[in-house]
Amino acid sequence: MLAALLSLGTAELVAALLGRTSSPVIAVGGAFVDRTPRWLKEFAIRTFGENDKDVLIAGVVATVLVLALLVGALAVRRRVLGYAFIALLAAVAASAAVSRPNADWQDVLPSLVGGLLGGLALGLLLHAVSSRVAPRATTTEAGSQKPESQVGVGRRRFLVAAAGVGVAAVSTELIARAARSRLDVAASRAAVRLPVPASPAPALAPGAMLRTAGLSSFYTASRDFYRVDTALTVPQLTTEDWRLRIHGDVERELSLDWQQLLARPMIERDITLTCVSNEVGGNLVGTARWLGVPLKPLLEEAGPRARADQIVSRSVDGMTIGTPTAVVMDGRDAMLAVAMNGEPLLPKHGFPVRMVVPGLYGYVSATKWVTELELTSFDAYDAYWVKRGWAEQAPIKTASRIDTPRPFSKNPPGRVAVAGVAWAQHRGVSKVEVRVDGGPWQPAQLSAAGSKDLWRQWVWEWDATEPGTHKLEVRATDADGETQPQTREAPFPEGSQGWHSVVVRVTD
Ligand SMILES: Nc1nc2c(c(=O)[nH]1)N[C@H]1C(S)=C(S)[C@@H](COP(=O)(O)O)O[C@H]1N2
Ligand SMILES: [Mo]
């Protein structure tokens, strides 16, 4: 176990010194994520939420340690097993590391060096163990009788070796962390001066925000904003290193750096983002004020060819996201965003640059840490989630959610404010209705309409007179007059559907 720990620590350290934000453990975790069946992914998200990544990393490390413990016990008798295990570990880690998107040959080095040091440590420990089990100087007259003092010396030798390897393992891990934090983007982010938008966000109408207790705020604070991505460590990309390449089926390839991006006229817009994995009543949705460079004029400069009906965006961590060219070009506020709620993007939300396309689920539009736009066709290329069976085209479905009262809450009889949010991006919400125990639908009061890319808050005063349990249900209608269907659909493959309901108690 100690030798395996030293292998992992050394590998982390070498990866950090090479300036890689990934390490073999993360690469193995990442390879695992890409091959995880959908049920397991959904179980992990449901059970661990945003901690799912930490749980996975801990799982990888725990698996290695448990295997090491078992193999270690055998290796005391058959050393070759121990060395074979360390070699296998290094080989698995190296192959995972080089097969990650954006990997290069350097990525074998951490596993290689880790394996070598682990092997050396194992040799040292096994040597110390054997001198404890069978001290060399046992040629006393009593034959097999070992003198007390020699057993003591052997044990001491083993403990010293074990402590040495243990300290080395922990130190490599600690130094690796310190080295990695040098790479972080905090300084780059702190140095960003955001430009004044050429087109500021339209002022919100009076009454655009309702203030019912327990209701989601109209703007979602960046630190509370949901996070969904496959990145096990937040990619660390500085503005100095950032480049965007626009290529593929275009008349002219374009390449932009951060200064060139910032020099372009910017728009500022309030837009509600939603994840396709959001369950009915779920919270993978939020509203922010985005500042960015509109995509349409930029693409027009590159000149997409007629057959290029798909824009494949790539991120620094190798995610691929396919967005219909027609949607980006239809006049909506599709942008390369550099700021969220008046600040440079948080690293976990895509610093320094991400895409935002109103009306489409995140997995087909909202590429974080974006570095590349390739014009191609849907026939020619399937993006990451499309390869895994999710829909190629994914406009956001109309949805509504009850925020308050909470499920199973106890409410004294009398007036109860039933309130929540509803969204139908790029169509707009025109009506929200609530019903109690399957009774008649009652129109809720809506917050004043903003742009059609925004959610609306709603509230309905319930005169709760009957004690007992009651079921509250909500449904929304979009601006085209389409009402949410009742039939429940799971998020896979194109977004959940159905009415959200909560059961609450009215006390006597
Ligand atoms: N690089 C990268 N960008 C990504 C993803 C990802 O896994 N990697 N996930 C997408 C998905 S599924 C969603 S819903 C949004 C979420 O954006 P947020 O985490 O800022 O809320 O990011 C999108 N952009
Ligand atoms: Mo998503």
UniProtKB/TrEMBL annotation:
Pfam families named in the record: Oxidored_molyb
Keywords annotated in UniProt: Membrane, Transmembrane, Transmembrane helix
Region of interest (Disordered), residue spans: 475-500
Keyword Transmembrane: yes
InterPro entries, per database record: Ig_E-set (IPR014756), OxRdtase_Mopterin-bd_dom (IPR000572), OxRdtase_Mopterin-bd_sf (IPR036374)
Transmembrane segments: 55-75, 80-99, 111-129, 158-179
Keyword Transmembrane helix: yes
Oxidoreductase molybdopterin-binding domain sequence ranges: 232-384
Protein name as catalogued: Molybdopterin-dependent oxidoreductase
Organism for this UniProt entry: Motilibacter deserti
